[in-house]
Design goal:
The protein has 79 residues and is mostly beta strands. The chain has one domain: Roll (SH3 type barrels). It is 0% helix and 42% strand. The chain is globular. It starts with 13 loop residues before the first strand and ends with a strand.
């Protein structure tokens, strides 16, 4: 079993996405591969969890009150 990695960011932090975040098929109201949050979009972390198998922190980020997207640390930065 892998020890869980401590998250860098916390619930309530404002962040910016560092890449275009695209629909991987988990958003039925958007076309698959549609851009959900373009690079530079601001959002807020609304939940912090962990990927079970890799123990990697996963951040649920609400972008502009439109989509809540699961993000990895390398996909976001604090603002």
């Amino acid at each position: 079993m892998i020890d869980p990695r401590e998250p860098k960011y916390q619930w309530g932090m404002r962040v910016r996405c560092l890449i275009d975040l695209v629909n991987d098929g988990s958003f039925p109201d958007a076309e698959e591969d549609a851009v959900l949050a373009p690079e530079g979009t601001l959002g807020e972390i609304v939940q912090v969890g962990s990927h079970v198998e890799s123990s990697t922190p996963v951040y649920m980020v609400e972008f502009e009150q439109k989509y809540v997207v699961g993000c990895l640390e390398e996909e976001i930065e604090p603002v």
